[in-house]
Amino acid sequence: MGLAYVVTSGKGGVGKTTTTANLGTALANMGKKVVVVDADTGLRNLDVVMGLENRVVYDLVDVVEGLCRVKQALIRDKRFEGLYLLPTAQTKDKTAVKPDQMRKIVKELKEEFEFVLIDCPAGIERGFENAIAGADKAIVVTVPEVSAVRDADRIIGLLVSKGMEAKEIRLIINRLKIDMTKRGDMLNIEDMVDILAIEMLGVIPDDEKIIVSTNRGEPVVTYDNAPSGLAYRNIARRILGEEVPFMNLEQNRNVFKGFIKKILNL
Amino acid sequence: MDVLKVFNKVANASKDVAKERLKLILIHDRSNIPPQFINMIKGDLIKVISDYVEIEEENIEITLSNGEGRNENISALTANIPIKKVRSIGK
Fold first, then answer.
1. Cβ of B74 under 8 Å from any chain A Cβ?
2. pTM reported for the whole predicted model
3. Which CATH number fits domain A3-264: 3.40.50.300, 3.40.50.1980, 3.40.50.1820, 3.90.190.10?
4. Which residues lie closer than 8 Å to A171 by C-beta, 6 or more apart?
């Protein structure tokens, strides 16, 4: 029996879909059997971020309406062994699925897959309720902005009120600009962990390579030299229970500075 | 480098402003107390307290804040009520 994770945030545009795609790919590359599920009915994008948009035949809503079985709606990612996508409908809206139906589908997927990653839509209405219905654990994504952290706090409160234990909710801080945090012009990791009071799963540095990889429909975890890719790989290892030290984003620069200093001294 | 750090502190880094604003916002969000409740509490407090002391009604401040010490994680309702004079009762 596998585990279902919902990737959620409250606020839109903080990187839920990118995170879902990359963690799914990273876990599959580590030999796990993974399915990523798009729960954003009506505004689906996980297929696009994963570069699988041309292969959608059936979707989540078709499964709910009994037009096909779950297995028929799954798209196998040919590039990565063990990775599957369950897309959702683009022309329906979120009320096309009920939380109970979602719970049933996720349960069925958990029998087949070790990891079920559910990409939650923004907001706290039906789409959110559907996305969290079958989830055992949650990954809350935020960016270092007041509005995003506020929404993350609200989402954590809602998850707990729906019966999820706080220890099953972990935080990913996305798009951290190291230069700005060093100048004190961006909320830092400590501030956010302090305020949200949940365990941290990882930090993704702001990285142009994410845009390049999304343009191409290739998850950034497959780029060896992308800092964000490395950060996602580290998070996947932590999900698998490995103790991976957090990248000391500030120290990296100091090492570099030390190196320059050394050269100058020579 | 250190000079720069000190300078940042003096200039009140914008992330400190962000953190303070965020903390205050979350106190209200988490407390779940609708803003009109605060007003109603204020009205009732004035009624009760006015029987005993004369107060400056226009300067009353009722705010939500973090508790102190052991109650840090609990929001506290703080009332700041300026007193003009104590009424003499029972005479």
1. no
2. 0.84
3. 3.40.50.300
4. A139, A140, A142, A152, A192, A193, A196, A198, A199, A200, A201
